[in-house]
Amino acid sequence: MAKRDLLDFSFSDLGFTAMALHCNLPPHTLAWLIDRCCMSGFQRRVVPLEVPLRKISSAHIYFYHDVPETETSFWLLENRGTAGILSTGRPDPDFLLVAKGEQKDEMLSLWLELIKSESAVSMAYIMPADQQQRLNWLPYLTDSSE
Question: Structure pTM?
Answer without folding.
Answer: 0.87
